[in-house]
Design goal:
CATH topology of the largest domain: Methylamine Dehydrogenase, Chain H
Low-confidence stretches: 1-9, 146-151
Largest sheet: 6 strands, antiparallel
Strand content: over 45%
Shape: elongated
Structural class: alpha+beta
Radius of gyration: 34 Å
CATH superfamily of the largest domain: YVTN repeat-like/Quinoprotein amine dehydrogenase
CATH architecture of the largest domain: 7 Propeller
Distance between the termini: 116 Å
Helix content: 10-25%
Number of strands: 34
Number of helices: 3
Number of domains: 2
């Protein structure tokens, strides 16, 4: 009986141990399920919060883009954070923003001239072992620009604003970089003007400089404006425009003699300067160091009494095209493949004997303004251009300057001229063999407009000339 009782007690102890182990396993499972379920809920909640922060970021960038007329053009590629100032969202360069331990980075990249890609990345500490990341990608469209292209047309240019220059001096040439118009005027002092045209309807003068001599032309590339001048000691003047409102003279070049520089063009590390007085020349200037430009090479184009004045220059790789007053070589073609030894290689003889005052190019097309005629030449063979088409501006004026807009359809070219009417004209060049007048604008008074420039980001043309009260006009499509 005692033995039997002892066996019964031992069996009960085993049962207890087994039951305890089973209970521990069940409790552990329940606790684990609760714990991991809670962690999963926390992770899911954090991811939902990250998604909301990313979506908020995308909407914020959209609000910035739509905040004003030209906000899209200010959205530069790069990484940003977001902040609010007086209820308005702002992008802060290279500084991600943090919300409740979530770090948000906004990255902008250009898809095409009217589209930006926005990548919103949100990072957070998911648990002790790992971090969480959520990415949201969207695209912004410059619908204002598209609306202009689709519904408005340069066939009907209209006035956006007019500007009176200081001291009633004539505007000579204009170039646009970003949201700024850079103007050279016919004046001995304060002859370099910088206008902020972010709002084309209300431009503001932000900077004036007094350059040596009288400036005659301007070319802008990157952070510098290159100004041709009648100065006897600084025929080329280089302006640092990194901060347009604080532009400064960086360097200058003195060509031998007292000839006036009339045309200027930059390509690569060289500036090409068309120079005229008793002799016409093309100087090739090395501007690797803008503060100390040096002469690389120069070619004589001939005495001006026989071969004409050199006016403007445009350059493609290895060749420069110089417009002139020559009766038989209105365009001189210079081989500049060796910058130290440029050579006169060929020429274009336009019909008639009128002066070719202005010249420009795009890809394989050369555009020449000769008196009241615009000529288009194919320069696929650089030394032997072939005539394509031409068009008369039809108002008795002289074409003084050309600006190109190849970003829209139809392709449009802009002209500034000296006619008593239609001083600004747009030319449809989608068919280069048969260009036609696309649109005209009659300025408020009959005057000569000598310079024209176009901004694709603003979709505005700017002309400058010699009126006494409206020397600069900003024109828009309608």
């Amino acid at each position: 009986m005692k033995t039997k009782s002892s066996n019964s007690s031992g069996f009960t102890l085993i049962e207890v141990l087994l039951a305890s182990s089973l209970l521990i396993i069940v409790i552990s499972g329940i606790v684990g399920a609760i714990f991991y379920g809670t962690e999963s809920s926390i992770i899911s909640a954090k991811r939902t919060q990250a998604t909301q922060i990313a979506e908020q970021g995308l909407e914020a960038v959209k609000n910035i883009k739509d905040s004003n007329y030209q906000a899209f053009s200010s959205l530069a590629d790069g990484a940003y954070g977001l902040q609010q100032n007086s209820g308005q969202w702002q992008l802060v360069p290279n500084t991600p923003d943090v919300q409740n331990n979530f770090t948000r980075t906004v990255t902008l990249s250009t898809v095409n001239p009217t589209t930006k890609e926005v990548n919103i990345s949100v990072n957070w500490q998911q648990n002790l072992q790992r971090t969480g990341v959520f990415n949201l990608v969207g695209r912004l469209t410059n619908w204002r620009d598209i609306n202009i292209v689709v519904n408005l047309s340069w066939s009907n240019p209209g006035l956006d604003s007019a500007v009176d220059f200081p001291n009633i001096k004539a505007g000579l040439k204009v170039q646009i970089s970003g949201n700024y118009a850079f103007v050279v005027i016919n004046r001995g002092s304060q002859n370099f003007l910088v206008y902020n045209i972010t709002n084309p309807a209300s431009p503001t003068l932000v900077q004036t400089l007094s350059l040596n001599g009288n400036p005659t032309n301007i070319f802008i590339d990157g952070s510098y404006a290159y100004v041709a001048s009648s100065s006897n000691t600084q025929e080329l003047q280089i302006i640092n425009i990194t901060n347009p409102a604080a532009s400064t003279l960086t360097g200058s070049f003195n060509n031998s003699g007292n000839n006036d520089a009339r045309g200027v063009y930059k390509l690569g590390n060289y500036v090409y300067l068309a120079i005229s007085a008793s002799t016409s020349q093309l100087a090739v200037i090395n501007i690797t160091n803008p503060a100390a430009p040096t002469l690389s090479g120069i070619v004589n184009l001939g005495p001006t009494n026989l071969t004409g004045l050199a006016y403007e220059v445009t350059v493609i790789p290895n060749y420069a095209y110089v417009s002139s007053s020559s009766d038989t070589q209105e365009v001189k073609i210079v081989n500049v493949s060796n910058p130290a030894a440029p050579t006169l290689a060929s020429s274009i003889n336009l019909p008639g004997t009128n002066n070719a005052l202005t010249i420009s190019h795009n890809n394989n097309n050369l555009f020449i303004g000769q008196s009241n005629l615009l000529y288009i030449y194919d320069i696929t063979n650089p030394l032997s251009p072939s005539a394509l088409g031409n068009v008369s501006i039809g108002n008795g004026g002289i074409i003084n300057d050309i600006a190109l807009n190849i970003a829209q359809s139809p392709d449009v070219l802009f002209l500034a001229n000296s006619g008593n009417v239609a001083e600004f004209q747009t030319i449809n060049i989608s068919n280069t063999s048969a260009p036609v007048i696309f649109g005209t604008y009659n300025t408020p008074t009959a005057n000569t407009y000598a310079g024209v420039a176009y901004s694709s980001s603003l979709n505005r043309a700017v002309i400058v000339g010699d009126p006494t009260t409206q020397e600069m006009l900003i024109l828009k499509p309608q």
